[in-house]
Write a structure and sequence with these properties.
With about 230 residues, the protein is mainly alpha-helical. It has helices at about 5-40, 45-50, 60-75, 85-115, 120-135, 140-145, 160, 165-180, 185-230.
């Protein structure tokens, strides 16, 4: 049975984890919201920046804080705690924080469609799911995540949503007419570029988080030794 002292230490560890993950998650959502509202609507420039997902470069700072905070929280754990146990929080937090920005963008897109159409949200969600499945093969959030790799800017109205497939076909046929290259080639280029950008940001977040997690562990080990030294 854990001693009261160890139970208190575990409680401090869990509270620190919740505070670190919650703060980084909130910052990520605020930055994403600000970009969607103020940056990406800028004519021409905003669309270009959104296609590069430029705001995801904030992952360097956010995931550094996340990794260091989770690693540093281990100061409340025993020195004998296995590294695997200390890593569980990071393994859970990394995808949670990374995908939170896309989840918010998905919800804001549905909200934009609903506000424009003045129809019940469930009708808009059903219509959006049909369009997403037609274009990406998946519905809901995962369909949105997949389609935005090749179409960063999605239709803003239900009328545009219904003719999304036709607009894409027209765009690719115009590219073919001017370049003489088959439409399938452009599809592969757009898909490859979109997934390449997405994977780059994903790896950047993961590597940054892991590097600063190790730094946080080192800091926690030092803090634990200093506490033991003072106890003597």
């Amino acid at each position: 049975m854990p001693s009261p002292r160890s139970s208190a230490a575990i409680a401090k560890y869990l509270l620190t984890l919740a505070a670190v993950v919650g703060a980084v998650l909130l910052a990520k959502l605020i930055i994403t919201w600000a970009a969607e509202v103020f940056l990406y609507p800028i004519p021409i420039l905003g669309g270009w920046l959104k296609s590069l997902e430029i705001i995801e470069l904030t992952n360097i700072l956010l995931f550094a804080l996340l990794g260091f905070g989770i690693g540093g929280a281990s100061r409340y754990l025993s020195a004998k705690t296995p590294l695997g146990m200390k890593s569980i929080a990071l393994i859970v937090a990394l995808p949670l924080v990374f995908f939170s920005s896309y989840w918010l963008r998905y919800q804001m897109w549905l909200g934009q469609l609903s506000a424009q159409a003045e129809r019940p949200r469930q009708d808009i969600v059903a219509m959006a799911n049909q369009a997403l499945e037609r274009e990406s093969g998946s519905q809901g959030f995962w369909g949105y995540y997949r389609i935005t790799t090749k179409m960063p800017i999605l239709p803003a109205t239900t009328a545009e949503l219904e003719r999304m497939a036709q607009d894409q076909q027209w765009f690719r046929s115009e590219l073919t007419r001017f370049s003489g290259i088959e439409p399938g080639v452009f599809s592969m280029i757009f898909d490859g570029a979109g997934w390449g950008i997405r994977i780059f940001h994903m790896l950047l977040a993961a590597i940054t988080g892991l590097i600063y997690f190790s730094k946080g562990l080192a800091w926690a080990d030092g803090a634990r030794l200093r506490r033991l030294a003072k106890g003597k």
